[in-house]
Every structure is written in C-alpha cells, then in structure tokens.
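Title: Prediction job returns without error message
Component: structure pipeline
Severity: low
Priority: P3
Assignee: unassigned

Description:
Job completed but the reporter wants confirmation the result is attached to the right record. Sequence as submitted:
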Amino acid sequence: DWSSDVCSSDLMKGKTKSPAKASHTRDRTEFMQQALARATQDGVAVAVKDLGLQESQIYAWRIKARAACQ
C-alpha cells in the first residue's frame, strides 16, 4: 500500500503561510490524504465520483505525495 509512504508534512514543504492560510493548507493537505486513501481503498473511479474530483487530480496528488517522500 503506497499510502503508508505519504509524507504529509512534506506535501507543502518550503512554503510559508500566514496563520489563516496555514490552516487552509493543513485542511487541504488532510483532504488530499483522505482522498488518496479513499482512492486506494475503494478505487479511483469510485472516490472521484463521490468526492467530485477528476481522476487526473487523484493521480497528480499521488505523484506529488510520492515525490515528497523521496
């Protein structure tokens, strides 16, 4: 399972944020993690339909998460 390799703190590495933006970024990062976990568990097609995303977004987040861990 690749999702165990996701380095959540590294997804937005190197970006400084105001407190309000930091909260939004944290929420977005959590959403990304949950969406990726859902795609792994239920399949990409099911996850994107339920979450209102495009398949390409899941694949892009997956690439970004893997790159952050290397």
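Comment from assignee: result matches the submitted record. The CA atoms of residues 36 and 45 lie 12 Å apart.
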